[in-house]
Amino acid sequence: AGIADMDLFVCGPLCDARLRRAVAGADGSTEPASLSAHAVVMLDDTGMAVAVPDPAAQAHGLIWRGLTADQIERVALFYAAYGAGPVDVTVGLGDAACPARMWSAGVAPAAAAPWLAADWDERFATATLFAVAELFARDPRPASATLAWQYPMMLKRGWNRVCAAGHDRPAHLRHDAAPGDAVMTDSARPLGRFFSLRGFDVTHRRFDGASQGPLPREVFFGIDAVLVLPYDPQRDRVVLVEQVRMGALLRGDPNPWVLEPVAGMIDAFETPQAAALRETKEEAGLDVTLREVVSFYPSPGNATDYFYTYIGLCDLPDLGRYAGGLDAEQEDLRLHVLTLDAALALIDTGEIAAGPAITLLYWLALHRDALRVEFARTAS
To answer: Which of 54, 207, 251, 342 would bridge 39 by S-S if both were Cys, CB 3.0 to 4.6 A apart?
Structure first.
């Protein structure tokens, strides 16, 4: 039988008709099925699940029929994004048995949790649907070998869309937007490998009440990020991270090594606070207590970038330099421990030119006396 004649056994997220349509481009026909001696478990913390061998369990899912060869290749590419490979199995359909192909990780991850449909729908579905839409909007489609690093970025962008939809900022001075006031149409296929450039037309409401557009626009689709300025209130010291930055390099800056706070992308389904603690440990080797400062768009005219910024209260006994970062992420970082006054002086000379660093250092200069009093009271 050819690939187009295959019956597929799917379980977990692909039991959701929305995801099946997004992956295959059409829903096909389905009926309930089960696979003995297998359990449906979570692969990781992204909500994905597969059936893995378990002699004491039975995996419940669907037989999926009526797909073309291209649609089955799309299903295979989706599973490849999660590191799952094809397995031929025999599943139960009521009193009958049916040969089918499924995708599995082979063995269950350590302490794997069971997959729950309600949990998937509440926590993971929307971001995953955005990521899958991006995956199959790309032309050509990514190769299976590159998905290991490309698809997590798609999931992060999907998660950013979910987080942005939850923003509830006031609109006392600015326009209080209503549905339809700004509409994107005729979106072009996304460009880029790691990050993404999106082209589209926009029609928006003018301040005089008229409509303007469609206007062609292009926007850099980045990833929401956290920035943490480690600060020792007792010694009045901060940590700055130095590394070569591609934006400064491409702009033609003769010295693209930039002084910044600790910074890093928020993983899909991760909170900003968890990301801030993780990145501070990874980049600077520090355990900190977070003090939230402000969150903002650094360049809303041409980028989706959204930053969550924090002061990280910690103990910094030594002045000087040390290395940081993760080799696995090709990070080459030099960290500087210096007094807050010395860091502020670098803003005046222009040696610190990164906006978030300037924001956090000036905020800290305004609030350091209160932080030092609070820290001293807590320490005593």
So the answer is: 54
Say yes or no to pLDDT of 127 above 80: yes
CB 47, CB 19: distance < 8 Å: no
Q: Is the pLDDT of residue 379 over 70?
A: no
Omega of the bond leading into 214 within 30 degrees of 0 (cis): yes
Distance (Å, whole) CA 10 – CA 82: 14
**Active-site option among 134, 270, 329, 331:** 329
Tell me what the pLDDT averaged over the chain comes to: 92
Rounded Cα distance, 62 and 119, in Å: 19
For position 329, what pLDDT does the model report? 67
| Listed residue (304, 306, 303) closest to 295, CA to CA | 306
The answer to whether 297 touches 306, Cβ cutoff 8 Å, is yes
Which one-letter DSSP state was computed for residue 83? T
Between helix 147-165 and helix 125-137 the angle, nearest 10°, is 130
Residue 330, pLDDT above cutoff 70: no
Q: Which two tokens stand for residue 148?
A: 């290991």
- Tokens at residue 257, please? 């090594």
Instruction: Please tell me the distance from the alpha carbon of residue 306 to that of residue 288, in angstroms, as a whole number.
Output: 22
Taking alpha carbons only, the member of 136, 112, 106 closest to residue 47 is: 112
Structure tokens at 132: 């899958």
CA 50, CA 297: separation in Å to the nearest integer?
38
Residue 371 has phi, psi (to 5 degrees) of: -65, -40
Q: What angle do CA 163, 167, 172 make, to 5 degrees?
A: 165
The pTM for the full model equals 0.91
Angle at 311 between CA 305 and CA 314, to 5 degrees: 140
The SS3 of residue 89 is strand
- Tell me if residue 7 falls in helix, strand or coil: coil
In whole angstroms, give the CA distance from residue 237 to residue 235. Answer: 6
Rounded to an integer, what distance in angstroms lies between the CA atom of residue 189 and that of residue 139? 7
- In angstroms, the first-to-last Cα distance of the chain is 76
Q: Known catalytic residue: 242?
A: no
Lowest-confidence region among 237-241, 259-263, 368-372: 368-372
